[in-house]
Design brief:
The complex is a heterotrimer of chains A (612), B (225) and C (307). By secondary structure, chain A is mainly α. Chain A has 25 helices and three strands. The mean pLDDT of chain A is 89. The C terminus of chain B is likely disordered. The chains are: A mainly alpha (612), B mainly alpha (225), C mainly alpha (307).
Chain lengths: 612, 225, 307
């Protein structure tokens, strides 16, 4: 742990104490807390800059520290406005646990040996559990927090098991690591806690968790997995397959959600899938000696980690602002917020477009590299490797398509059109402290593609690899500039052509007074997709049909439950519960029976002892 | 791969794919007829004309295959369809997009299987075996995954087309008798199915094969009714 | 010289794109036994629209106003990535296929968001359908280009299309036929033509693309029409370079040949549109997934015959 991380941790500790000391004065406590986080982030930035100049930029440590610091600072600033009016007690709890989480995350990136790492990892999980639990009055939130805690602890247990087994290069060790860190990353089947915890947690915490904490799983995995060719092969295939499933199904479930933050949580699963695709391709390239594919895959994965942190941080903060302004997270109860919250709306819209991986925003650069890695695999590999690369390219394209629909649903449903309810019609104005961090992240999202050309230097590349990567990134930046110019030119033409515009109501094909209630709802927007993939999504409908000449009420309620939870975990846990219920018969209450059981157990152990 | 045989076989694969997504009865029957044409013309394309003219029996098998597969059977199916006044939709048990994916996956498997597990003599077109296997699988899939009795006949025809393609590719010279035998089988089968369909339709007012299980002797069910 | 030819091609595309819908309509009129509008009709329409003052709904925000602009810029950006007359694009690089696909996706997403911004139920319906079909057509494009990358071992658009030759056709013709058909289906879907969408329909319930722009007017509408025509040019040019790659007569002859072939391609679309009925909505995903299937089938064939 270097000097910078230590001083950042100290700074966080001091600010947590400061926030506790001035708990009577809410405003003062908030500013102290946020200032501590921002200061810590600045220290980390300084540290990475220093490391960069002294060629000591350690990817595992410095890069992930940068990600954590960025999101941590932005979320802390947002929290000032988000938590305003929550009362001193909660405030105190929030800031101490927030700083604990933040510090633990920094420690996770910096620690290199098993036991301290594991301690930091556990502290990170536990502290964030309390943050998820912050709004404990709601029983749903409590449930979600418990699920999150279960996920964390199961992951920790698997890691301990892996470290206990630590013979090093064995495959079992690697797969235990994969499962343990996978619970944090949210690989398919292991993701169940994500869509529960994110809607329950306060928005800054969601942003921190989704943007920075989940990808730390990758950090841990890469640090502790053996760096041998055989292990790269295992890791490559595992990450590729998990990525294919996670990316496509994650975004499919996102398209089915009508809760804004749940939608974003599923989108995180998708993005983790895309990152795994990149790393998977990279490791396969390393294992099978395809340096181009290795470079592009790993580079794409790394870039996407950063982009996802920036964008998902921005989106979750935006969702938090919306929740504070309207009091709801249901997309079908929002609408038309762009007029009430112009800055948040702009940030959210740009973030939504960027997270779909569309140019000229930053989300595209990472995906582009992964795509090119897949292409080089298609062009130069054979057999299973070829099939993997081809599937990567096609699944990425399909994922991108669904992502557009899902994020159009989120951005369009919340911010565009007419307000659908009174709550969104009377939405509160946005607060400055909540807007500033989003603007900062938006700036990064726009600027990153233009400066992504430095990535080869950051990764210490030389020669051919450096050339390849920098050409792609520079051409991409060039195209972004051309694209901006084109937009400006077209805009200028339209300005000349379209003077004296008139404003009237929406035409809506002859309806005299279209209202918000007649709008296409956000759920309806993705309904065709949900129908098309109904076999997977298994949406449930409750319909009350229109009947009679003067129908009084009619309604349709569509919900999309998590398939992994429904068809896998619930089945297992219920089966286990039934089994436990059966075992209950053993507790008969007769002492003789208990002794008999003990004798039986003793005999069985003896038999086992002799057998072995 | 631009030889005529390869184009025909690729066309066969495309017809398999379009059968998986075809949603109308008449459309399916037309595609099956197209498959009949492909299979029927295939020996002509595969023959090495440079080495001399084939025997008369060769023309015979082409003529019979074309007559039965491309004209007679589809015509009978069409007639059965009109006679039985079936609804013209296929009523799939497995959705069309999923069907497409499944058939594609099966094709991939067929290619993989033929690539690594079967050594073929050189004169057999490389595409022949995978195309035949894919067609056979498509036929089976249609039998399993579509509801109506008449689609099961169609599936059976596709299945048989696959077998013929297999036979044509593997034993161009000696397969005539086997071929004719199979053709006769199919002919009789379709004939019987046609009659059965007609009668089932008259008795039950629909020909959904998945309703047939109500005919079984099940005391409990009968009691419940 | 190279740059001159390439930029001439770009300018020709920018100037000539509005001809394509005119040609399509003329062919359709021919099939229907009518005389039909002038080939230059879209030019007149564009001129008229750009002179008119636009009308904006009070519901809309800046998204609605910027959507046509971004869409148009996106399509022009995609055009800039194409190789023309055998000259590689100025902005091309390894993997620019993705950039082209995604920049078109950006245009589409903005159109969808602009439609949602009006709050009109019909426009919502249109955008919903557009989103659904876009998923599969993007997958189909990637499947098709996967086959092409495997075939040519190049990863840039310019590189792939430069490799197309008659020799390639004589060796891998079957796969190329499949690729060509698959991409043509994509063109029909992306340009909103029959059997996916009917540009002539006037029933809001059945429209896709036209439903999304019901509220646009004036210069905005002109931009949208122009972008649609230009997109057709871009996609047709790619298809032409796939199918009929080489013409004689040096670079200028090649350029003229390509332009003529794009016009011919528009005529083919018109013919397809005249003889086919539009599919039901449930049927369209099947059409597009069969395009994906064609691409994958081509890949399988290529693997089988390359070994």
């Amino acid at each position: 742990m270097d000097f910078f991380v230590r001083s950042a941790l100290g700074c966080l500790l001091a600010s947590a104490l400061g926030a506790w000391l001035c708990r009577k004065n809410e405003r003062c406590a908030a500013v102290t807390g946020a200032a501590g986080a921002v200061l810590a982030a600045l220290i980390i930035f300084a540290g990475s800059t220093w490391a960069f100049w002294h060629h000591a930029f350690n990817f595992y440590a410095s890069f992930f520290q940068l990600v954590v610091a960025l999101v941590g600072a932005a979320a802390a600033m947002h929290a000032i406005g988000y938590l305003a009016g929550e009362g001193g007690k909660k405030f105190c709890a929030f800031w101490s646990f927030y700083h604990l989480t933040f510090g633990a995350m920094l420690a996770v990136t910096a620690l290199r040996s098993f036991i301290p790492f594991l301690i930091a990892w556990e502290v990170m999980g536990l502290a964030s559990f309390f943050l998820v639990m912050l709004e404990y009055e709601n029983s749903e939130n409590q449930r979600a927090a418990w699920i999150y805690l279960l996920g964390c602890e199961a992951g920790g247990l698997l890691l301990m098991l892996a470290f206990a087994l630590s013979g090093g290069g064995s495959a079992a060790y690697f797969y235990l690591l994969l499962a343990g860190f996978g619970l944090k990353i949210g690989f398919p089947l292991l993701h169940v806690w994500l869509p529960e915890a994110h809607p329950a947690a306060p928005a800054p915490v969601s942003a921190l968790m989704s943007g920075a904490m989940i990808p730390l799983g990758f950090c841990g995995l890469f640090r502790f997995m053996p760096h041998t060719s055989a292990c790269f092969g295992h890791a490559g295939w595992a990450l590729l397959i998990l990525g294919l499933i996670g990316a496509f199904f994650g975004i499919l479930f996102a398209a089915g959600q009508s809760n804004l933050k749940r939608l974003l949580a599923y989108s995180s699963i998708e993005n983790m899938g895309i990152i795994s695709l990149g790393f998977g391709l990279g490791f396969l390239g390393k294992a099978y000696a395809h340096p181009t594919m290795a470079l592009l895959g790993l580079g794409g994965g790394v870039l996407h980690v950063f982009n996802h942190a920036v964008l998902k941080g921005m989106l979750f903060l935006g969702a938090g602002s919306v929740l504070r302004a309207t009091g709801t997270l249901q997309l079908d109860e929002m609408g038309g917020l762009m007029k009430k919250m112009p800055v948040t709306g702009r940030c959210f819209l740009c973030g939504a477009i960027a997270i779909c991986g569309l140019p000229p925003f930053c989300g595209f650069t990472g995906e582009l590299l992964i795509y090119i890695g897949a292409f080089s695999g298609i062009a130069h590999c054979h057999g299973a490797l070829f099939a993997g690369a081809l599937m990567t390219a096609i699944v990425l394209a399909l994922t991108g398509g669904v992502a557009c629909a899902a994020l159009a649903k989120a951005a369009g449903g919340a911010f565009l059109g007419e307000p659908r309810t009174e709550a969104s019609r009377n939405a509160a104005k946005e607060k400055l402290s909540m807007v500033i961090p989003q603007l900062g992240l938006l700036f990064l999202a726009l600027a990153l593609p233009l400066f992504a050309g430095t990535l080869p230097d950051v990764l210490h590349l030389t020669g051919k690899a450096h050339h390849l990567l920098s050409v792609v990134l520079a051409k991409n930046a060039l195209f972004c500039c051309v694209f901006y110019t084109l937009i400006v030119l077209v805009l200028a033409w339209r300005r000349r052509a379209g003077r004296d515009a008139r404003a009237v109501g929406t035409w809506d094909c002859g309806y005299a007074r279209p209202t918000g209630r007649m709008e296409y709802t956000a759920s309806a927007l993705t309904q065709p997709i949900a129908d098309q993939f109904d076999t997977v999504l298994g949406t449930k409908r409750e319909v009350k049909e229109v009947s009679g000449l003067f129908p009084a009420t009619a309604k349709i309620l569509i919900s999309c439950r998590d398939a992994a939870r429904n068809f896998f975990w619930d089945v297992i846990f219920h089966g286990f519960a039934r089994f436990a219920e059966k075992c209950h018969a053993l507790q008969s209450g007769y002492l003789h029976f208990y002794i008999f059981m003990m004798v039986l157990a003793l005999a069985a152990m003896l038999a086992w002892g002799f057998w072995a | 791969m631009t030889a005529l045989t390869e184009i025909l076989l690729a066309l066969l694969l495309v017809t398999d794919l379009s059968l998986a997504v075809a949603s109308r009865l008449l459309h399916s029957i037309k595609i099956v007829a197209l498959q009949g044409w492909i299979i029927g013309l295939f020996p002509l394309a595969a023959w090495c004309w440079r080495d001399g003219m084939p025997r008369v029996s060769f023309y015979l098998i082409v003529a019979v295959t074309l007559l039965v597969k491309a004209i007679l059977l589809p015509a009978m199916l069409r007639r059965a369809m009109y006679k039985a006044e079936v609804k013209r939709e296929l009523e799939p048990l497995v959705g069309y997009s999923l069907s497409c994916v499944i058939v594609l996956a099966a094709m991939g498997m067929a290619f993989w299987f033929c690539r690594y597990h079967i050594a073929l003599p050189n004169e057999v077109p490389a595409l022949c075996l995978p195309a035949a296997l894919s067609t056979i699988f498509t036929g089976l899939f249609i039998i399993i995954a579509r509801r109506k009795a008449i689609t099961q006949v169609i599936g059976f025809l596709i299945f048989e087309n696959g077998i013929t393609a297999f036979g044509l590719g593997m034993m161009l010279e000696y397969g005539i008798l086997v071929e004719l035998g199979i053709l006769l089988d199919v002919f009789v089968l379709v004939f019987i199915m046609g009659i059965a369909l007609f009668h089932i339709n008259r008795e039950f007012a629909h020909i959904d094969a998945d309703q047939l299980h109500f005919l079984r002797d099940d005391e409990k069910e009968r009691g419940a009714k | 010289m190279k740059l001159l030819i390439w930029s001439t091609g770009i300018v020709a595309a920018l100037a000539g794109a509005p001809l394509l819908p005119g040609i399509v309509n003329r062919v359709k009129a021919f099939f229907a036994g009518r005389k039909g509008p002038s080939v230059f009709q879209l030019y007149f329409d564009l001129a008229k629209l750009s002179r008119k003052a636009p009308v904006y709904s009070t519901t809309t925000s800046w998204v609605f106003r910027i959507a046509p602009v971004v869409n148009c810029a996106a399509v022009i950006g995609a055009l800039l990535l194409l190789p023309i007359a055998g000259k590689a694009s100025l902005f091309g690089f390894a993997g620019d296929v993705v950039l082209m696909l995604y920049v078109c996706g950006l245009g589409r997403l903005f159109t969808v968001l602009g439609a949602l911004d009006t709050g009109s139920s019909f426009e919502g319906m249109g955008s919903s359908r557009e989103c659904q079909f876009a998923i599969l057509s993007e997958g189909a494009i990637l499947a098709v280009f996967g086959a092409l990358i495997l075939l040519t071992h190049r990863v840039s658009l310019s590189g792939i299309l430069a490799q197309m030759s008659l020799h390639l056709w004589s060796v891998d013709g079957t796969a190329l036929i499949l690729v060509g058909i698959g991409f043509f289906i994509v063109i029909l879907a992306e340009c909103c033509r029959v059997p996916v969408d009917d540009p002539d329909t006037h029933l809001e319930l059945t429209m896709i693309h036209e439903a999304m722009i019901l509220d646009n007017s004036g210069a905005d509408l002109a931009l949208i029409h122009y972008a649609a025509a230009l997109k057709m040019w871009v996609l047709l040019l790619i298809e032409i370079l796939l199918i009929c790659p080489k013409f004689g007569g040096g670079a200028w002859g090649q350029l003229a040949g390509e332009i003529l072939c794009v016009m011919l391609g528009a005529a083919v679309i018109g013919a397809v549109e005249s003889v086919m009925a539009r599919y039901r909505f449930r049927k369209v995903p099947q059409l597009l997934s069969s395009a994906i299937g064609m691409g994958l089938l081509a890949v399988v064939l290529l693997i089988l015959f390359q070994a």
